[in-house]
Design goal:
Blueprint: H1 6-32, H2 40-58, H3 61-85, H4 90-113, H5 136-140, H6 145-153, H7 157-175, H8 177-187, H9 189-194, H10 199-225, H11 237-247, H12 252-271, E1 276-277, E2 280-281, H13 284-288, H14 290-302
Antiparallel strand pairs: 1-2
């Protein structure tokens, strides 16, 4: 890997990290309220398909984003109904959402577009392109400064939203009344209920927030990072986001670092095609597997003791 490629790899790192950050923060809100969200992967996939289909039809990336958010909220409400109202197994509900989204996106996409589940290619007017601010081209062409500026500025509005959500979520969960109540629900729902606050309402609000963020993540995949929806394009990012959340011990700022690490590994894999070591070409699949190898390493216990919210995954009932 040449040093000259480093700015491009770092810029790609930011782009690859965006959906991970959004999904990870979505999981943070949900799991801080005590609702485990294994369905991040499926909701991202449903959001990606909805955004691409709507953007293609209406020729508007913003309409695609709106529809992606609405669809993901619907999936979140299904998960909320199963795990909060019906007090079902939250992991089973999340896995069902993943399977449902993976199947529906392909079946509907193939029925509508006859392209094996792929949506039509989006034109520039239907995508979220990097922001074209005044003096952009001149700044990027400056010696020394240009490559660094590209790393931080050559991105779409959704990328900036994703990074802004990290400090916003950290502040909201730590400093606002809503955030403190939400965290209390995830730790001791009985105490919150005794104080006259609805546990179910807070948990539903948390899963809706998670749905909104998953919708943005899905829209980013199909209308910013790529130019259409393709089958299973989330490619395990929802599970990587969950790993990052566990690695960060359910905290926003460490979650950002973990997502950037996974994003960097994905970016390196994209630039390592045809790489030779001691005269032998290394298969690109080795580099593509790096984020998942890191996932196994982290989950195997090398991240130290990880302590989830005490009521995480436990349905609440007044009868208990």
């Amino acid at each position: 890997m040449e040093f000259a490629l480093l700015p491009e790899i770092l810029s790609s790192t930011v782009r690859m990290s965006v959906p991970l950050i959004l999904a990870c923060i979505a999981g943070l809100w949900s799991e801080r309220s005590g609702v485990v969200d294994i369905g991040l992967e499926g909701k991202m996939l449903a959001g990606a398909f909805s955004a691409a289909a709507a953007a293609s039809y209406f020729h508007s990336a913003w309409i695609g984003l709106l529809l992606a958010i609405l669809v993901c909220i619907m999936f979140s409400l299904v998960h909320g109904y199963a795990s909060i109202t019906q007090r079902g197994n939250q992991v089973v509900s999340g896995v069902a959402i993943n399977m449902l989204a993976a199947g529906l996106t392909v079946v509907i996409g193939n029925s509508w577009y006859k392209q094996g589940g792929r949506t039509p290619q989006l034109d520039d007017a239907s995508r979220f392109l990097p922001i074209n601010f005044p003096g952009r081209d001149a700044l990027f062409e400056m010696d020394g400064v240009g490559p660094i500026a590209r790393i931080f500025l050559d991105h779409s509005v959704l990328a900036f939203i994703a990074f802004a959500l990290v400090p916003l979520s950290a502040w909201a969960l730590a400093k606002t009344r809503f955030g403190l109540r939400l965290r209390a629900v995830g730790e001791n729902p009985q105490a919150v209920d005794t104080a006259g606050i609805s546990v179910a309402r807070l948990r539903y609000q948390a899963v809706i927030i998670a749905g909104v963020l998953c919708g943005i993540a899905g829209a980013y995949l199909s209308t910013a990072l790529q130019t259409s929806f393709v089958r299973d394009m989330s490619a395990g990012r929802g599970f990587l986001a969950l790993t990052a959340l566990i690695f960060a011990n359910w905290r926003a700022w460490p979650a950002l670092g973990a997502c950037l690490l996974f994003g960097f590994l994905q970016a390196v894999a994209n630039f390592m095609q045809g790489f030779h070591l001691f005269g032998v070409e290394i298969p690109v699949q080795v580099f593509n597997a790096l984020p998942y190898i890191m996932t196994i390493v982290l989950l195997a216990g090398f991240i130290g003791k990880s302590v989830p919210p005490k009521a995480s995954g436990t349905p609440y009932s007044k009868d208990r």
